[in-house]
Automatic annotation (TrEMBL), chain A:
Keywords annotated in UniProt: Membrane, Transmembrane, Transmembrane helix
Highest classification ranks of the organism: Bacteria, Pseudomonadati, Pseudomonadota, Gammaproteobacteria, Oceanospirillales
Region span, Disordered: 287-306
Key word Transmembrane helix present: yes
Biased amino acid composition, Basic and acidic residues: 287-298
Transmembrane segments: 12-34, 46-66, 106-129, 136-161, 167-186, 198-218, 259-280, 313-339, 359-379, 391-409, 471-489
Descriptive protein name: C4-dicarboxylate ABC transporter permease
Segments forming domain DUF112: 18-440
TrEMBL record, chain B:
Protein name: Receptor
Keyword flag Lipid metabolism: no
Pfam families registered for this protein in UniProt: TctC
Family: Belongs to the UPF0065 (bug) family.
Keyword flag Secreted: no
Extent of the signal sequence: 1-24
Keywords: Receptor, Signal
Length: 502, 318
C-alpha cells in the first residue's frame, strides 16, 4: 500500500492539482475568518461545481478549504473574540486577551504554526495508519461513544469561569438546545412547535453565530467614535520565520494536542470543536501556571489550534474506510467523493488508489501551505481589517453573518433563530454568563443522549452494558481520573499546608 | 378597486397568459429540480446524474438546475414541489416509502394526490446483514435466535419510519419473532456498529453493502430476482420468506400538470433511462436502477402508501 502512496505523487504534483490546493487554502482561510461562513458550508457550495471537474482538482480544493478554514477561524477569534468557526471557540480564550495586550500578531503566528503542524500530523496519520485506525473506530459502539461524550463534558468544569452556578446554567441551556428536533430513537417531536425547520435540530453555526458574533458586533456599534484604532490595529508582528524558534518550547503541547485531535477525528460524530476543548483543557492541566490561562497564554492558542487541524485528515479515516464521517465537514466531503463515483469502503483503496492516496497527499500539502499562505499573507492582510472604524466593522460583520446563516439551508427561518440567539447572547454577555459551556452542551448533550439510549436499547434496558466492554472500562477509568485528580491534589495541598502550619 | 388589486389582477392575467404560451412549446425556460436533501447525498447524486440527460432529451437548450432544500428528512423539499405551480418548471426528487410515511406520522401539507408521478428510477432492495464474526449466518439461525429469546436480537437500521423499518415489520410478521430496533442516524453508522459487532443484525440496502462484502455476512436480499450488483446473494423468496422491500427514489411534479408537459417529461425520462451512459453513471454511484414510469409509478406509490397504512395501524413506529 505504501507503494501506491508514492505512485499517486506525480499526478498530485501536476500544476492544475497543486493550484487547486492553493486556491482551496486561500478560500478556506477567508471562509473561516468570516464569522457565519464555515468549511462545511464552503464545501457544500463547491460540490455542485465539482461535478464536471477532475476528481483530484475537486478534492484538492476541498482539502485546502478544510485546512484553511480551521486556521482562518482563529483570526477573528483572536482579534475580535468572535470565533470564525465552531472549532475556534477555544482559541479565543487566550488569543483575545493576547490581542488586547498588543500581542495579537504573535497569537496569530502561534495559531498558524500550530494549525499547520496539527494538519501535517493528521495527514501523515491518514497516509500511514488509516487501515489500523479504522479498526479502532470499530471498537467504539454506542456505549463507548457515550463515554467519550461524558469525558468531553468533564471538561466543562474548567470552562465554567468564575461563577459555577452561572456556568452550569449556561451548560444546561446548551443541552436544552440540543433537545430541539425529532427524537432520533422514538421519532417524537421535541420543542419544534410544528416547525418542519426545527425537526433536524438546531445547526451549531446558527447558535454559535447568534451567541458569539452578534453581541461583540453590537458592541462594536456601541463604540461611536474610537480614537484607539491605531493601537489595536498594530499587531506588533515580526517575520514569522523569526517567530518560529521562540515557539519551539510548545512542542509538548503540539504533540499532545495532535494526538487528541487525531483521536477525536477518528471517532464518529465528534469534530473539531470537541478536539479543541479537550486539548485546551489537557494542556492547561499539564501547564505549570494554569492560573495564567484565559489571560493571554500563547500555549492555549497553540493547544486549541493544533488539535482542530489535527482533526481534519483524521476525520477522513472512518469516512474513507467505513463511510462514517468523523465531522460535519467530512460528511460533506463524502458527498464530494460520491459525486465522482468514489464510494467509501475497503474497495475504494483497491479500485481508485491514485485518487485516494492523491487526496491524502493534498491534505499534507494543504497543511504545509498554511504556513506560507496563512502566515505570510493572510494574517497581515486580515489584521488591516482592524484599522476600519469600529461601527463599520460591526456593520460588516452583521451583514456577513446574515448571509452566512441564510445560506446554510437557504431559508430566513434560520436567520430569525440566529437573531433570537443573538438576543440571548447579548444579555448573557451583559450578565456575565460564560458562553463556552453553551456550545459544549449543545455539541455533547445530543451526542451523549443519543448514544446512551442506543446503548441501552442494545443492552435491553440493562445498565450493565455501559461497563461491559474493555474499551468502556478504560474510558470510565479516564473520566474518574479527570474528575478526581483536582480533589486529590487539593487534599494533598491542604495536608501539606497543615504540616507547614504546624 | 385600488391600484394594488388592479396591479395584482394584471400580473395574474399576464402570468397566466405567459404560462399558456409556455405550454405551447415546453420547455422554454430553466427547470428547477428540487432535492430535499443536502448536496452530496444519495438522492442529490441521483438528481445531478439525471439532470444533464433530461436537458439533452427535453431539448430547446433547456437547463435543469438542481436546487437543494434540505430538512426534515426530505419533507421540506417534497412539500415545496407539491405547492409549486404545475407548469413543468418545478420538479423534484421523491423518496419512498418515506414521502408517504410522513403523511401518516406527521401533519404533512401534502398527500398522495398532490403530485404528478413522473418516473421512479432507483429501487434499492433491503438486505439482512450480520457481523462477520457472528455465528448467525443463515436465515434459519437468525429466526431460531430471535424466537429463543424475544427481543434479544438487536437490529441496527438507519432511521425510523423508513424502508428498513418497514422491512423489519414485515420480517416480524413473516417469522413470528420479536426484534429490538436500534435506530442510528444514517446507514453508515449502523453498518459500522455491525462491523464492530455491537449489534446482532442490521437492515440496510444492497447499494450500501456491496463495498463491504468481506466484512459482513449477507443473509438475503428482499427483491423478486437476485441483484446484478451481487448475484451470489439469495433472495428471501428463494429461502421461503415472502419479503420484498426496498428504498425507491424517483421524480415527481406538482399535481395537475398539463398533459403535453407530462408527455414531454415522461418521454425524456424514458429516453434517459434507456441511455447506456446514464445506466453506467448510475452504476458508478452505486444506484440500482429500475424504471416505473408515469401511471406505473402512481400505482407503485399507492401500494407503498397502502403498506405504510397497514403497518401504521397495527404497529405505529412512533
Amino acid at each position: 500500500m505504501y507503494g501506491n502512496l508514492i505512485d499517486a505523487l506525480p499526478s498530485v504534483l501536476s500544476l492544475g492539482n497543486l493550484l487547486a490546493v492553493v486556491v482551496g487554502v486561500v478560500a478556506g482561510i477567508c471562509v473561516g475568518a468570516l464569522p457565519g461562513l464555515s468549511a462545511t458550508m464552503a464545501i457544500s457550495v463547491l460540490i455542485p461545481f465539482t461535478f464536471g471537474m477532475d476528481p483530484l482538482v475537486a478534492l484538492g480544493m476541498m482539502a485546502g478549504i478544510y485546512n484553511g478554514a480551521m486556521y482562518g477561524g482563529s483570526i477573528p477569534a483572536v482579534l475580535l473574540r468572535i470565533p470564525g468557526t465552531p472549532a475556534a471557540v477555544a482559541t479565543s480564550f487566550d488569543g483575545y486577551p493576547m490581542a488586547q495586550q498588543g500581542r495579537g500578531g504573535y497569537a496569530l503566528q502561534v495559531a498558524v504554526v500550530s494549525s499547520a503542524l496539527g494538519g501535517i500530523a493528521s495527514a501523515l496519520v491518514l497516509m500511514l495508519l488509516a487501515p489500523p485506525l479504522a479498526k479502532v473506530t470499530l471498537l467504539f459502539g454506542p456505549t463507548e461513544i457515550f463515554w467519550v461524550a461524558v469525558f468531553g463534558m468533564s471538561a466543562i468544569v474548567f470552562l465554567l469561569g468564575g461563577d459555577v452556578i452561572k456556568g452550569l446554567i449556561s451548560a444546561a441551556f446548551g443541552v436544552f438546545v440540543s433537545l430541539v428536533g425529532a427524537d432520533t430513537i422514538s421519532g417524537a417531536e421535541r420543542y419544534t412547535f410544528g416547525h418542519l425547520e426545527l425537526l433536524d435540530g438546531i445547526n451549531i453555526v446558527v447558535l454559535l453565530v447568534g451567541l458569539y458574533a452578534l453581541p461583540p458586533a453590537i458592541g462594536l456599534l456601541e463604540e461611536i467614535r474610537d480614537f484607539d484604532t491605531e493601537n489595536t490595529g498594530r499587531l506588533n508582528t515580526t517575520s514569522i520565520w523569526k517567530a518560529i524558534p521562540g515557539m519551539l518550547k510548545y512542542w509538548k503541547t503540539w504533540v499532545r494536542s495532535s494526538i487528541i485531535g487525531v483521536f477525536v477525528g477518528i471517532l464518529p460524530g465528534a469534530g473539531g470543536s470537541m478536539a479543541a476543548f479537550l486539548s485546551y483543557n489537557e494542556a492547561r492541566r499539564a501547564s505549570k501556571n494554569p492560573d495564567d490561562w484565559g489571560k493571554g497564554e500563547p500555549e492555549g492558542v497553540a493547544a486549541s489550534e493544533t488539535s482542530n487541524n489535527a482533526d481534519t485528515a483524521a476525520a477522513l479515516i472512518p469516512a474513507l474506510t467505513l463511510g462514517i464521517p468523523g465531522t460535519a465537514v467530512a460528511a460533506v466531503m463524502l458527498g464530494g467523493l460520491l459525486i465522482h463515483g468514489l464510494q467509501p469502503g475497503p474497495m475504494l483503496f483497491r479500485d481508485n488508489p491514485e485518487i485516494v492516496f492523491g487526496f491524502m497527499w493534498q491534505f499534507l500539502f494543504a497543511a504545509i501551505l498554511l504556513i506560507f499562505l496563512g502566515g505570510a499573507l493572510a494574517t497581515n492582510s486580515f489584521a488591516q481589517v482592524l484599522r476600519l472604524p469600529r461601527p463599520l466593522l460591526g456593520a460588516i460583520i452583521i451583514s456577513l453573518v446574515f448571509i452566512g446563516v441564510y445560506s446554510i439551508n437557504g431559508r430566513m427561518f434560520d436567520v430569525y433563530l440566529m437573531l433570537g440567539f443573538g438576543l440571548i447572547g447579548y444579555f448573557m454577555d451583559k450578565l456575565k454568563f460564560p458562553l463556552p459551556p453553551v456550545v459544549l452542551g449543545l455539541i455533547l448533550g445530543g451526542f451523549a443522549e443519543q448514544n446512551l439510549r442506543l446503548a441501552l436499547r442494545i443492552g435491553g434496558g440493562n445498565w450493565d452494558i455501559l461497563a461491559s466492554s474493555p474499551t468502556a472500562k478504560v474510558l470510565i477509568g479516564m473520566i474518574l481520573l479527570v474528575i478526581l485528580s483536582p480533589v486529590f491534589s487539593r487534599l494533598m495541598r491542604a495536608r501539606k499546608a497543615k504540616r507547614v502550619a504546624e | 378597486m385600488g391600484f394594488k388589486s388592479i396591479a395584482i389582477a394584471t400580473a395574474l392575467i399576464l402570468s397566466s397568459s405567459m404560462s399558456t404560451a409556455a405550454l405551447a412549446d415546453y420547455p422554454e425556460k430553466r427547470i428547477d429540480l428540487v432535492v430535499g436533501f443536502a448536496a452530496g447525498g444519495g438522492t442529490d447524486v441521483m438528481a445531478r446524474t439525471t439532470a444533464p440527460f433530461l436537458e439533452k432529451y427535453l431539448g430547446n437548450d433547456v437547463s435543469v438546475v438542481v436546487k437543494n432544500m434540505p430538512g426534515a428528512s426530505g419533507q421540506i423539499g417534497v412539500t415545496a414541489v407539491a405547492e409549486a405551480r404545475p407548469d413543468g418548471y418545478t420538479i423534484g426528487t421523491y423518496n419512498l416509502p418515506g414521502a408517504m410515511a410522513r403523511t401518516l406520522d406527521r401533519d404533512a401539507d401534502y398527500n398522495a394526490d398532490s403530485f404528478t408521478y413522473l418516473a421512479n428510477v432507483v429501487n434499492d432492495p433491503n438486505v439482512i446483514v450480520t457481523p462477520k464474526k457472528s455465528d448467525i449466518d443463515t436465515m434459519d439461525k437468525l429466526v431460531e435466535a430471535a424466537k429463543k429469546r424475544p427481543g434479544a436480537v438487536t437490529v441496527a437500521m438507519s432511521s425510523l419510519g423508513g424502508d428498513d423499518h418497514f422491512f423489519l415489520q414485515r420480517l416480524t410478521d413473516v417469522t413470528g419473532a420479536d426484534y429490538t430496533v436500534v435506530p442510528f442516524s444514517g446507514s453508515a453508522p449502523a453498518r459500522s456498529a455491525l462491523m464492530g459487532g455491537h449489534v446482532t443484525m442490521g437492515i440496510i440496502n444492497i447499494s450500501e453493502v456491496v463495498a463491504f462484502r468481506d466484512e459482513l455476512n449477507v443473509l438475503g436480499i428482499a427483491s423478486e430476482k437476485r441483484s446484478s450488483m451481487a448475484d451470489d446473494i439469495p433472495t428471501f423468496k428463494e429461502q421461503g420468506f415472502d419479503l420484498v422491500n426496498g428504498a425507491l427514489r424517483g421524480f415527481v411534479a406538482p399535481a395537475n400538470l398539463p398533459e403535453n408537459v407530462r408527455t414531454r417529461l415522461l418521454d425524456a425520462f424514458q429516453k434517459t433511462y434507456d441511455d447506456p451512459e446514464f445506466q453506467q453513471a448510475m452504476r458508478r454511484s452505486g444506484n440500482p436502477t429500475e424504471l416505473a414510469l408515469g401511471d406505473d409509478f402512481k400505482t407503485l406509490n399507492a401500494e407503498q402508501l397502502e403498506l405504510a397504512k397497514r403497518i401504521w395501524e397495527t404497529t405505529p413506529w412512533k
